[in-house]
């Protein structure tokens, strides 16, 4: 396991990183504003599940493929961008009202599982996350100790910090959305439209990013 001083240094560095607003926070805030606090929380869980899967891949070396192969990186990159664009178009073209955050019927539960799976997929289809972990985590790994447990622990710390920030963003976005649409459940679907525009923007951002990972 990492030393106490390494854990402290990593925690401070990770806290700064997760506090900087990025695509994940925008995605979670958009989902929370469009579909309510419950959807924001589930999206946060989904994103951090995807984060831990990336960490596990980095621990066993699978993400090295994305770091070394421009073709593999491009395939995952454009698949992720296409999925975000699909989500944006679906949100903009859908006529179905978003589920209220307090609904607890069977339909809402199914929709909740779908929201969670979407967030996991969005995170998994972001090759920049895999390359980031491959570049960032090893800097805090003691070469004289087993690497896999250290990477998993560091990843868990980063994911916990990320989850905390994500939940704050989800709650804040839901609070703003409630003030805008009032207390009724049949207000204008501005949240869904805004969310759709955010998804489209994230898709364009993902597609326009670097075409190959940085060389080490």
Description:
The protein is an all-alpha fold and about 220 residues long. The chain has one domain (about 40-210). Helix content is about 75%, strand content about 0%. The protein is built from 9 helices and no strands. α3 packs parallel to α6. The model is unreliable at about 95-110 and about 185-190 (pLDDT under 50).
Topology:
Elements: H1 4-19, H2 23-35, H3 37-60, H4 64-68, H5 70-93, H6 106-124, H7 127-136, H8 147-181, H9 190-208
Attribute tags:
single chain, 216 residues, mainly alpha, 0% strand
Helix content percent band: over 70%
Derived structural class: mainly alpha
Strand content: under 5%
Sheet with the most strands, sense and barrel status = none
Q: Which stretches of 5+ consecutive residues score pLDDT under 50?
A: 97-110, 183-188
Count up the domains: 1
> What is the β-strand count?
0
Q: Helical region count? A: 9
- Overall form: globular
The end-to-end span amounts to: 25 Å
Radius of gyration: 18 Å
Taken in chain order, the helices and strands follow as HHHHHHHHH
**Mean pLDDT across every amino acid position:** 77
Task: Offer a quick outline of the entry.
With 216 residues, the protein is mostly helical.
